[in-house]
């Protein structure tokens, strides 16, 4: 009798363990799925942002929209891949070099500014867009007309971003700085007037301001506080670089580039710079 | 509702009842005032607008694209942490009951060390260590770091749970095992450990609640895409509805943890009432008790 | 090897941790006592409120609460708790969040302390003619307080460690500095050992001392 009961209990424990194991097994297979990189002829893996409206955004139906996505799709098409053959992968700012170096992605189009430090680790095709650091403020706020006006203002940016430090050290040392994990947290404060301005690249700001919920509520300062040359990152020494450059030139020439910029960032009144020349980085 | 007698006051008479009604009315007014202020302020900031909340009720894609995958990662991290930490904890818990002084001391030092350090510090360390010393892909690193931090901390908490579970068994069990000629190791693996697992179950389930709550740190500080981190892409898509997204996510956390807590209490009640077990239980509250560094309910030598 | 340490205010960061712990401990003791009073009060509605509060707060991650103080209370409702700059506002918000969370645990510790007093003690007190306040003051509370020192020590230790969560809203305490240092310096092991040691210095002596107190004042039954 007692033995029987013990056996049952042991069975129950075994069953519980099996459930847990199957759970973790599912987790593992999930993680293993995307890591193959570009070895396969059929598919191409592209790194983009998942949470930046106007540039790279994962929408509720699992699709991706934004300028970076449109550029990457065009480039992939020129490389011989249909939109359906693209594996999109999230490339968070801090992970971009590692993703390329490990070969987890074939190329990255994720608000990726070309800088000397990054160029030591990866190669850049492009640039395909010249962006500037800028501020976003409420459209009824006329007190900020130049960067120095940010002194004593409440400024918001994301943790560890260079934009915030740039303002703090060079442009407006008296500005107060709040850092959050993401820009949408800053927007809530900006909308409710506890934050005066949000600073980062004008493209990112325009992407937020172009969302239907925000149209008319915010405006860009147009201060051009820095030059950000968005490039497409590839592995060091990759032959993709030349092909991507060709694709980018074609995209500008046939007008798809301007169409993509207008579609994704236009509604916010974003004035884009003329398409940059391939290989020319504006310092 | 029938009043139970307590140490604080008698069963209320007519005057006390009238006074209680007055208190109730005042309390309702105070709570209502606070709620009214919150709702009014939220409405004034346009946070109660339908467009910010509707997606959660009308658009199932919000759940399938953001919330459920986040919840899945939370559950995976918590389950992995529990499954890995439990055997480690058992090892250390048993080592602390060893007859050899140096084994007890070594295990004790390790357990005390990891219990004294915040789990966030352990996660930050694990995250940096994986990126510096290993080849884990950036995609998986947050999960690895979160699980590692949770395992390091919870193994030491579970070591105490296991120890308490073994100590909670009646001494007759050890005596009987000795009487039929079992050696120390046999007593532990064949008699004490199997029975203590049952005794520990409620404490284990409620420790799972602590683990689930701590996974949110990974979302906020390490970029682990768990439930809390799903707020960001969600609010990026729906016009910065951060308040609505946060509220929904908080509710999901509460429901998940409430189910676990209730399950733990149910288990504990069942075990306490059970006549055919030894009746030894490490209760739900014990986990809190055990989180105290430097305190050992019973020294190993005291065990009969 | 140790030169880079001079560029960082490690002691200052731990001082912020201590301040967070101190103010949150006082606040959660007050709010937790009020909650405990509600949970044992003769008014059913207050008991209900206390129960609901404790059950909800104990099941929400502290991270969610802390982030919510910043996004909800400050950014949306405009509660700045009287501070002018972000440093002050974030610090106070973090303290508020820690109080809201920790008070639930303080409440449970106090309530279980009251429950340890046997009913017979009160019956005996009433039998020798003590009135309600005398019973509470001379019999119940002294015994209850002595039995909650141990559980409250746990809560304090947990609170000390939980102050690291304030890093999520940018309070410049130990964990935030540790993350910054790890990102900027290639001395992972050394940095981690320093911060681990710092927290051990904060939690272990407190735990040992208060447990000694708890044993000394414990009611022998």
UniProtKB/TrEMBL annotation, chain C:
SUPFAM superfamilies: MetI-like. The keyword Transcription does not apply. The chain crosses the membrane at residues 20-40, 60-83, 89-110, 188-214. Keywords: Amino-acid transport, Cell membrane, Membrane, Transmembrane, Transmembrane helix, Transport. Residues 14-206 form the ABC transmembrane type-1 domain. It is a multi-pass membrane protein. It comes from the Bacteria. It is found in: Cell membrane. The keyword Chloroplast does not apply. Gene3D superfamilies: MetI-like. Belongs to the binding-protein-dependent transport system permease family. HisMQ subfamily. NCBIfam families: HEQRo_perm_3TM. This is Amino acid ABC transporter permease. The lineage of its organism: Bacteria, Bacillati, Actinomycetota, Actinomycetes, Kitasatosporales.
């Amino acid at each position: 009798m007692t033995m029987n009961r013990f056996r049952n209990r042991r069975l129950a424990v075994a069953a519980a363990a099996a459930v847990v194991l199957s759970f973790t097994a599912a987790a593992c297979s999930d993680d293993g799925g995307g890591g193959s990189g570009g070895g396969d002829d059929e598919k191409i893996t592209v790194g983009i942002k998942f949470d930046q409206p106007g540039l790279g955004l994962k929408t509720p139906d699992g699709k991706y929209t934004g300028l970076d996505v449109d550029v990457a799709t065009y480039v992939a098409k020129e490389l011989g891949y249909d939109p359906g053959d693209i594996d999109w992968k999230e490339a968070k700012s801090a992970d971009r070099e590692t993703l390329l170096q490990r070969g987890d992605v074939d190329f990255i189009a994720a608000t990726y500014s070309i800088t000397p430090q990054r160029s030591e680790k990866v190669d850049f095709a492009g640039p395909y867009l010249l962006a500037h650091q800028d501020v976003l403020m409420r459209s009824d706020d006329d007190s900020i007309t130049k960067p120095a006006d940010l002194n004593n203002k409440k400024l918001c940016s994301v943790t560890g971003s260079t934009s915030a430090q740039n303002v703090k050290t060079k442009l407006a040392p008296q500005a107060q700085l709040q850092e959050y994990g993401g820009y949408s947290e800053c927007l809530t404060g900006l909308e409710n007037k506890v934050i005066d301005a949000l600073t980062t690249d004008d493209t990112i700001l325009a992407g937020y301001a172009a969302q239907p919920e925000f149209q008319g509520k915010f405006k860009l300062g147009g201060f051009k506080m820095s030059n950000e040359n968005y490039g497409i990152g590839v592995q060091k020494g990759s032959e993709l670089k030349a092909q991507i450059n060709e694709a980018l030139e074609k995209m500008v020439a046939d007008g798809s580039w301007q169409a993509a910029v207008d579609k994704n960032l236009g509604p916010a009144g974003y004035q884009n710079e003329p398409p940059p020349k391939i290989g020319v980085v504006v310092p | 509702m029938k009043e139970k007698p307590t140490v604080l006051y008698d069963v209320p008479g007519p005057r006390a009842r009238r006074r209680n009604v007055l208190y109730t009315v005042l309390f309702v007014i105070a709570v209502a005032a606070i709620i009214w202020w919150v709702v009014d302020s939220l409405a004034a900031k346009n946070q109660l607008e339908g467009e910010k909340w509707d997606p959660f009720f009308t658009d199932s894609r919000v759940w399938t694209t953001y919330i459920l995958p986040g919840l899945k990662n939370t559950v995976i991290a918590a389950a992995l942490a529990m499954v890995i930490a439990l055997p480690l904890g058992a090892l250390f818990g048993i080592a602390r009951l060893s007859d050899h002084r140096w084994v007890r001391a070594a295990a004790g030092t390790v357990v005390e060390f990891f219990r004294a350090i915040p789990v966030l510090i352990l996660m930050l360390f694990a995250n940096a260590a994986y990126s510096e010393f290993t080849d884990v892909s950036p995609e998986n690193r947050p999960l690895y770091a979160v699980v590692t931090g949770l395992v390091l901390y919870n193994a030491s908490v579970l070591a105490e749970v296991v120890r308490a579970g073994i100590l909670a068994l009646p001494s007759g069990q050890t005596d009987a095992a000795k009487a039929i000629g079992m050696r120390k190791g046999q007593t532990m693996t064949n008699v004490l450990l199997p029975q203590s697992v049952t005794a520990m179950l409620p404490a284990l389930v409620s420790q799972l609640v602590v683990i689930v709550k701590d996974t949110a740190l990974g979302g906020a500080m390490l970029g682990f895409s768990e439930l809390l981190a799903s707020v960001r892409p969600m609010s990026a898509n729906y016009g910065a509805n951060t308040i609505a997204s946060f509220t929904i996510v908080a509710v999901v956390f509460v429901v998940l943890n409430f189910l676990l807590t209730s399950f733990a209490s149910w288990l504990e009640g069942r075990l306490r009432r059970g006549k055919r077990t030894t009746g030894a239980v490490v209760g739900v509250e014990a986990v809190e008790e055990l989180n105290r560094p430097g305190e050992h309910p019973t020294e190993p030598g005291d065990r009969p | 090897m140790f030169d880079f340490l001079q560029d960082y205010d490690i002691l200052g960061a731990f001082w912020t941790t201590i301040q967070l712990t101190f103010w949150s401990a006082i606040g959660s003791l007050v709010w937790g006592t009020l909650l405990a009073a509600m949970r044992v009060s003769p008014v059913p509605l207050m008991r209900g409120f206390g129960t609901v509060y404790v059950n909800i707060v104990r099941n929400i991650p502290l991270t969610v609460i802390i982030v919510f103080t910043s996004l909800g209370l400050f950014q949306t409702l405009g509660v700045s708790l009287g501070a002018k700059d972000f440093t002050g506002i974030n610090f106070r918000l973090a303290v508020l969040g820690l109080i809201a969370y920790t008070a639930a645990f303080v409440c449970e510790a106090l309530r279980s302390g009251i429950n340890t007093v046997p009913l017979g003690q009160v019956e005996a007190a009433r039998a020798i003619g003590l009135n309600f306040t005398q019973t509470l003051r001379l019999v119940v509370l002294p015994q209850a307080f002595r039995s909650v020192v141990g559980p409250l020590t746990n809560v304090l230790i947990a609170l000390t460690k939980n102050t690291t969560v304030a890093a999520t809203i940018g309070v410049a305490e130990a964990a935030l500095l540790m993350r910054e240092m790890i990102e900027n310096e290639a001395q992972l092991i050394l940095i981690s050992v320093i911060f681990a040691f710092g927290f051990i210095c904060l939690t272990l002596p407190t735990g040992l001392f208060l447990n000694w107190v708890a044993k000394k004042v414990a009611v022998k039954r």
